[in-house]
Amino acid sequence: MKGKRKTADASVLQWLSYVTVVAAMSCTPLSASAVEGRLVTNNTPSYVATAKNLGADDPAKLIEVSIWLQLHNRSEFDALTRSFYNRTSTNYHHWLKPNDIAARFAPTPQEAKTVQEFIAADNLKLVKMGPSNFYVRARGTVGDVERAFHVQLNNYQVGDKTIRANAGDPYIAGAAGPLVRAVSGLDSGEFEHTLVVRPTSIGRSTSAAAAVINPDFFSSQCFTGTEKETFSTNGDGELPIVTFSGNKLNLESQTSPGCGYTPAEIQTAYNLTGLYNEGFNGAGQTIAIVDWCGSFSIQADANAFSKKFGLPQLTSSNFHIIYTAHSECITFDQVEINLDVEWAHAIAPGANINLVVPPSASFQDVDEAEFDVANRGLGNVLSGSFGAPEAFVAATELETENLITEIGAATGISFNYSSGDSGNFELSDNVFLPTVSTPADSPWATAVGGVTLALNSDNSIAWQAGWGNNVNVLAARGTVADPPIGEFFAGSGGGPSNCVTKHTQFRRPICTGGFLKPSYQQGSVPGTFRHLPDVSWLADPFTGAVILISIPGQFPERVFQVVGGTSLAAPMFSGLWAIANQEALAGGGTELGQAAPYLYSLPAGTTYDIVPVTSKTNVTGSIQDSNGTTKYTAAQLASADPTQHQFVSAIWDIFNLEEAAAVVSFGTDIGLHTNAGWDNVTGVGTPNAKAFADFFFGK
Q1: What is the Cβ-side half-sphere exposure of residue 337, based on CA atoms within 13 angstroms?
Q2: What is the distance of C-alpha 193 from the center of its chain?
Q3: Do 500 and 414 form a contact (C-beta atoms < 8 A)?
Q4: Is the model's pLDDT at 16 over the cut of 70?
C-alpha cells in the first residue's frame, strides 16, 4: 500500500481478509485507499444466513438507499433525553426543539457534503438531503449500489416472501466511512400492518370482512348465552358424529351481522364520556398517524363515520394529509388508514389529525416519515399501527428506529406503536425464534398490546382477557374433524427484546441480546431487557370495532366492517394520550412526552389490570366414530397450552361455510400469559379513561 503505513495490527488484517471476500463476491475490487473507510457492521438482516438464496438481483434495476450519518455527542444526547423524564432533574419536561437537536447533535453540512461526494463518485444520484443532515438519500442501479458499498445484493426466500438483501455488511470507502452509521434500503424489508379484520370464514385476513350498510344492525353483545349442536358426516347421521355445547359467539348469521362495537359503546365502557363532560376531548392536541400509500376516500369516509356517530367533521382546520414523497400506491379500500383515523377521532374527537403518508411500507420510507414527525413537530402524539419481527431486521435498522423514537421523546412526542398480532412470533414462518415487534421494541416507544372485550347490556365491561385466539374446526361441509383441527389464530405481541445483537453459529443467526430494560420498567418486568407491551386496549377482531370504508365496485359502495388487531389499540391509546396532554396543559403543566415512563407508577383505579378469566360454560364435546365415543374437555377443544388453566371458549357458527362450526378461545395467546400486575400480553392493563387522563391534570 504505497504511501501508507507499512504495518497493520491484527484487526486491520482481519478486516482486509473480510473485505477481500466481499470484493470477490461482488466482483468489485477494492482500491488501496479503501482502508481509509469503514465497514458498517450489523447492517445485514439475520435471515441472509439461513434463507434460500434465489440468486442475484437484476443489476439494471433502480433502487434507492438512505445513508444515515453519525450523531455528535450521542452519549450526551442519551443522558439529556433521560433527564427530561426524571422528576428530580432540573431538565424535567424541558423538551428540546428540533433546532436545538440540529445545533448540538446533528451531523454537520460539511459531513453531509462528504457523503454526497461519496455517492457521486460511485455514479449514484442524490434524491434528497434529510433534515438537519441526518441522512442522505441516493438512487442508482443495483449494480452501481453493489459497487459503491462493496456488497452483493441477492433475492432470498423468507417464508412466503421474496426479499432483496445484502449478503454482507456494506463498506464505505474514503473519508465518508467514519461518518456513516447505517445504510438503509440495501434490503427491501417492509413493515406490515398489525391489522386483523373479523373473519367470515376459516383463516386470518387483513382485508376481507363482512360488509354492513347500517351499523345499527351490529350488536354490543358478543357472547349470547349457550347452545348445543350436532353435526354428522354428510349430514345424514353417518359416523363420525360430533356433539358439542357451550358459550355462543355472536358473529355473522343469516339474520344478523353479529357484534361490533361503536364509538358510543366504547366511550361508555371505558369512562370516556366523563372526560368529554369535563371538556377534555383532545382539543389543542395533534395526533400524527403514519400510514403508507394513501387513500382517495379517507376524509369522506371518516366524515360519514363521524356523522353517523355524532362526532365532529374533519375539515381543513383539523385534518391534513401530508405526503412525504410522491405516492404511486394511493387507492381506495385502505382498511388500516380508515381504522386509524376513525378510531383516533372517536377517542379524541377534539384533537387535530395529521395523516403522514410515506410512499411505501419499506423500512427506509417509514423511517423517514417518522423522522419528519419528530423534526417538523407534526404532532405531540404519533400513532403507528405497524411492525416487523425484531429478529428479522438488521441491527442498524433497529438502531435507526430507536434513534428516531428517542428524538421524538426528546422533543416531547410520544411514539405509540402496536405490539403486533402474532403473539411471540413462535409460529411464524419468517422468524427463527420467539421475538417481539419493532419499532415497538424501542425503550423510547410506547408499545400497545391488545385485549378481548365483552360488554354487559348497559355497555359496562363484563370481562376483559388478554387477546389470544385459537380456532378449532369441528365440522365443515359434511365433514367432521375427527379429531378436531385447531391452530393459533392471532394475539397480542409481547415478550422481551432479544435480537438487537446477534452472532452466527453453524451458519445460523443466534440472538444474544436486545434493547436494555429502561429505568421505568425496573422492578416491574423480569430480566435485563426491554419488555413489551406497556399498555393495551381493544384488539380482538372477534370482539372488534366498527369502521366505515368505501369499496369501489361494490353496492352500496360505502359499508361498515368489524376490525381488530393492535392496529386498533394503538390509535385508541394515542387518542387518549392526546387528552392526557390536554389535561396536563389545562392544569398549568407541560406536554407529557413519551407515555411509557408514566404507566408503571400510575395510582390504583387508572387502569384495569387484566388477569386470566374463565367461564363455567366453556365448550366441551364428544365425537362418536367406529371406535366408540371420545370426550373432549374445554382445554382440548380450545387447543389451550397446558399452563393455561383459565380461558373462555365459545362456538362460532361459520355462516359462509355450509354446515360448519368451530371453537374460538379467548385468553390463549401463543407463548404469552396474563397475570396480576404487568404481563407480556397486556402490559399494565387497559385505561380507565377518565381516571387515567385526570391523573395528568397539571403534570
Answers
A1: 25
A2: 6
A3: no
A4: no
Report residue 56 as a C-alpha cell: 442475484
pLDDT tens digits along 147-181: 999 999 999 999 889 999 999 999 999 999 999 99
- Position 174, amino acid: G
**At residue 201, what are phi and psi to the nearest 5 degrees?**
-150, -175
- The CA distance from 533 to 573, in Å, is 13
pLDDT reported for residue 408? 98
Distance, CA of 195 to CA of 205 (rounded, Å) = 8
Question: How many Cα atoms are found within 13 Å in the side-chain-facing hemisphere of 513?
Answer: 5
354 by DSSP, 3-state: which?
Answer: strand
Grid cell of 598 as nine digits: 408514566
Question: What is the amino acid identity at position 172?
Answer: I
Dist CA 431 CA 439 (whole Å): 16
The pLDDT assigned to 354 comes to: 98
In this structure, what are the phi and psi dihedrals at residue 113, rounded to the nearest 5 degrees? -65, -40
Q: Residue 320 contacts by C-beta under 8 Å, 6 or more apart in sequence?
A: 352, 353, 354, 355
Q: Determine contact, residues 467/567, Cβ cutoff 8 Å.
A: no
Cα separations in angstroms, 228 against 247, 617, 622, 661: 9, 11, 12, 11
566, three cell numbers: 393492535
Q: Are 393 and 363 in contact (CB under 8 A)?
A: yes
- What distance in Å separates the CA atoms of residue 511 and residue 211, rounded to the nearest whole number? 43
Q: pLDDT tier at 211 (50, 70, 90 boundaries)?
A: low
- Assess contact for 195 and 467: CB atoms under 8 A: no
Q: Which helix (H) or strand (E) holds 599?
A: helix 596-599
Q: Is the separation of the CB atoms in 575 and 283 below 8 Å?
A: no
Grid coordinates given for 385: 399501527
For residue range 271-327, list pLDDT tens digits in order: 999 999 999 999 999 999 999 999 999 999 999 999 999 999 999 999 999 999 999
* CA distance linking residue 667 with residue 653, whole number of Å: 20
The dihedral formed by the CA atoms of 388, 394, 399 and 402, expressed in degrees to the nearest 10: 0
CA-to-CA distance for 8 and 6, rounded, in angstroms? 7
Please state the separation of Cα 493 from the chain's center in Å. Answer: 9
0.85 surpassed by pTM: yes
DSSP reduced 3-state for 639: coil
What CA–CA distance (Å, rounded) separates 379 from 322? 12
On average, the pLDDT of the chain sits at 91
Q: How many CA within 13 A on the CB side of residue 540?
A: 24
Q: Is 413 left (phi over 0), alpha (psi -120 to 50) or beta?
A: beta
Banded model confidence at residue 645, pLDDT cuts 50, 70, 90 = confident
In order, the DSSP letters of 539-585 are --GGG-EEEEEE-TTSSSSEEEEEEESHHHHHHHHHHHHHHHHHHHH
Question: What secondary structure does DSSP assign to 73-134, as a single string?
Answer: SHHHHHHHHHHTT-TTSTTTT-PPPHHHHHHHTSPPHHHHHHHHHHHHHTTPEEEEEPGGGS
Reading the block at residue 296, the C-alpha cell is 382517495
Asked if 494 and 426 count as a contact pair (C-beta separation under 8 A), the reply is no
Question: Greatest CA span in the chain, whole angstroms?
Answer: 91
N-terminal to C-terminal alpha carbon distance within the chain:
62
- Partnered with residue 461 across adjacent β-strands are 455
Q: Treating both helix axes as pointing N-terminal to C-terminal, what angle do 395-410 and 363-376 enclose, rounded to 10 degrees?
A: 20
- % helix / strand / coil in the chain, to the nearest 5? 25, 30, 40
Contact by Cβ (8 Å): 127, 140: no
**How far is residue 636's CA from residue 620's CA, in Å, rounded to a whole number?**
8
Type of residue at 696: F
d(CA 169, CA 463): 50
